[in-house]
Amino acid sequence: MSLLEIKGISKTYPIETTLWGKGKRLEAVKNVSLTLHEGTCLGLVGESGSGKSTLGKMILGLERPDQGEIFFQGKNLFQLAAKEQKELRQNLQVVFQDCYSSVNPRLSIGNIIAEPIKNYEKLTPAEEKKRVGELLEKVGLSPGNMDKYPHQLSGGQLQRVNIARAIALHPKLIVLDEAVSSLDVFVQAQILDLLADLKKEFQLAYLFITHDLQAVHYMADRLAVMYKGQIIEMLDDIKQLNQL
Ligand code: ADP
Ligand code: ADP
């Protein structure tokens, strides 16, 4: 069974202009189908505006498709009971591009990372501190960072914090939406290395959304190319990328 199965999903948005007349809609995603297997990374590339983020948001349940279905661990994402939704949120995480706006600036790093854990487990303050410290170390930061605030960290450090929060509940899939794109190239390489290590250690699957072909070549096992809302190319073996 594939971890994620997308069947013919489409999403339109209203065009907010009178130029083309009322009621006209933009087709952000058109009849997209794909599968993602456990422990693998699917790269999703395409120019800006091709529909990558919209597809990511539908998988995360942040947008509802007009048509089609999405199955995660065999369950229809849009027909879940409340209990199943909670379980799903545990297994499906996201890291966005903008590391600063992804976190609450008033929370300490320790509390940011502990946020998801608190929703699922009852831990004593000492247990929580231990878990947060372990997670910080797992992403290459010293536990002493838990008392700092987001503005005291660099972009790369803060993206490590976002990754620590994403892995805190041992998810099956992380949607990485341009997760390294705004970092400088040296830091990007470090974060990609970290993501590759975590994938191996925890059998994580990634949907790796990016416009960076080099990063995708490094990270992805399979590659989907989007253009104007459609998947126009699907490479099941990333090594074929050399032939593009
Ligand atoms: P990206 O680099 O991911 O394409 P964008 O700048 O296109 O980022 O979009 C940033 C955010 O604004 C996204 O959350 C996207 O869904 C939203 N967005 C993009 N285009 C529009 C639009 N025409 N109207 C409203 N929101 C939009
Ligand atoms: P990508 O991530 O590949 O840059 P997006 O999924 O962000 O592409 O956007 C696909 C298309 O949908 C773009 O034309 C964008 O402007 C439009 N779009 C995205 N989000 C919204 C929104 N919330 N409202 C209206 N249009 C949107």
TrEMBL record:
InterPro entries: AAA+_ATPase (IPR003593), ABC_transp_ATP-bind (IPR050319), ABC_transporter-like_ATP-bd (IPR003439), ABC_transporter-like_CS (IPR017871), Nickel_NikE (IPR014137), P-loop_NTPase (IPR027417). Gene3D superfamilies: P-loop containing nucleotide triphosphate hydrolases. Residues 4-244 form the ABC transporter domain. CDD domains: ABC_NikE_OppD_transporters. Keywords: ATP-binding, Ion transport, Nickel, Nickel transport, Nucleotide-binding, Transport. One of its GO terms (molecular function) is ABC-type nickel transporter activity. One of its GO terms (cellular component) is plasma membrane. This is Nickel import ATP-binding protein NikE. The lineage of its organism: Bacteria, Bacillati, Bacillota, Bacilli, Bacillales.
